[in-house]
Each structure stands twice: as structure tokens, then as C-alpha cells.
């Protein structure tokens, strides 16, 4: 489906919506001031942190976190060290607090500092070791809403499949929400359907049964 103008991709937690030939339909960035606030909070909470542009991961951590390296391999983006001052002018699509799950759990126990940023930032716990930040109101669900508006269809015509915390918004938005067998319990609770897990062709089974029939 690469290189087509009628196939669509939602990425970076919903901040980027584009066709597979690269035509951007919607791109909502984190502002530089947002980045500075988030990076300062990461230092205060002693969490590893990185920011992501369309083509690179940036971190001000001299001791680059293991999950930053993991994310780099996962999404095929190189990692660069930049001080906060050097980040001015870089288009940031998403930022992430990344660390051992128990370290993030401990940081989130005192949520007041995160709460103070929610006027301009949307937070999502996508995995036990990722706590993500997008621009206010941005999610996979909001991106699907924009796609529906462009295609002039309703959510009833959509099926969404997911397994993590950052998939909750699109599962709730879509007319047919499908949770993978390995999904978090909160997502399974709000989905209409639970398919097989990722090791047993859960996506293919759901598409064949509910989209193609």
C-alpha cells in the first residue's frame, strides 16, 4: 500500500496524518515551550526523556536511556544528542518519558507537576515503560476523526484494532473497536470485540471476520 494517495497512515500518537505517498493531511506539533517544560519535568522526576521529529529522535540525556535505543530500533529513527537550547526550531511531533516501569510508576504517584501541563499537553501511558506527550487534544482517536471528516464518512464505517494505552481513544471512537488478545485490560473493557493475540494473527483474523465479510 506504499506510495498511494488513497491509503492513510496515523503516526506519532495521532499528531501526523498522511497518505502513504507522503501527502500530509494534518500535522500538529508540540511547541518549543512545551518541550522545555517537559524536559525540565523529566529532569526533576529523574526520568529519561526524548523528543521525536518526523525523521529523528532527540535526547538531552548524555546517558541515553535503553528505551530510547529500543524506540530507535522499533521506529527506524536515528538518535541525536541535543541540549534544550539546541532544540529550538526543530519540529517536535511527540515527546516521551521512557524508563523502567517501576521508575515511571513512582514518578506518576505525585502527578501534580504533570497535571499542571495538561492545559497544553495530552499525556498517554502507551506501555509500562512509555509515558507519552502530544499537543493538547491530539490522539489516535482525534486523527481518525480528521480522516473521517476528509473522507466524509462516520465512525460507524471504521474498525480500529489496538493493544496499548495510546489506542484507547481510537477504539472508543471507531464504530467497531477491536482489542488484541494481548491488549491491556482497560482496552479490552471498552472494545466490542477481542481477537487473538499478536502471536496468533489477531489483526488478520479481525480484518477477515469483521471487515471483509
UniProtKB/TrEMBL annotation:
GO cellular component terms listed in the entry, alphabetical order: cytosol
MF terms in GO: magnesium ion binding; phosphatase activity
Pfam families registered for this protein in UniProt: Hydrolase_3
InterPro entries registered for this protein in UniProt: HAD-like_sf, HAD-SF_hydro_IIB, HAD_sf
Keyword annotations of the record: Hydrolase
PANTHER family: HAD SUPERFAMILY HYDROLASE-LIKE, TYPE 3, PHOSPHOSERINE PHOSPHATASE
Protein name: HAD superfamily hydrolase
Organism: Liquorilactobacillus mali KCTC 3596 = DSM 20444
Amino acid at each position: 500500500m506504499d506510495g498511494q494517495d488513497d491509503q492513510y497512515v496515523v503516526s506519532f500518537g495521532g499528531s501526523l496524518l498522511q497518505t502513504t505517498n507522503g501527502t500530509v493531511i494534518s500535522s500538529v506539533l508540540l511547541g518549543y515551550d512545551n518541550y522545555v517544560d517537559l524536559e525540565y519535568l523529566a529532569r526533576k522526576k529523574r526520568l529519561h526523556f526524548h523528543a521525536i521529529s518526523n525523521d529523528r529522535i532527540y535526547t538531552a540525556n548524555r546517558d541515553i536511556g535503553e528505551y530510547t535505543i529500543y524506540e530507535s530500533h522499533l521506529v527506524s529513527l536515528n538518535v541525536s544528542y541535543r541540549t534544550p537550547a539546541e532544540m529550538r526550531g526543530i519540529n517536535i511531533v511527540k515527546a516521551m518519558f521512557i524508563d523502567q516501569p517501576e521508575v515511571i510508576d513512582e514518578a506518576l504517584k505525585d502527578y501534580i507537576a504533570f497535571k499542571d501541563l495538561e492545559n497544553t499537553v495530552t499525556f498517554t501511558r502507551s506501555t509500562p515503560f512509555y509515558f507519552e506527550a502530544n499537543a493538547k487534544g491530539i490522539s489516535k482517536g482525534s486523527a481518525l476523526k480528521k480522516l473521517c471528516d476528509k473522507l466524509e464518512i462516520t465512525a460507524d464505517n471504521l474498525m480500529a484494532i489496538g493493544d496499548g494505552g495510546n489506542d484507547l481513544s481510537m477504539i472508543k471512537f471507531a464504530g467497531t473497536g477491536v482489542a488484541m488478545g494481548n491488549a491491556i485490560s482497560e482496552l479490552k473493557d471498552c472494545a466490542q470485540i477481542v481477537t487473538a493475540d499478536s502471536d496468533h494473527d489477531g489483526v488478520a483474523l479481525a480484518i477477515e471476520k469483521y471487515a471483509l465479510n
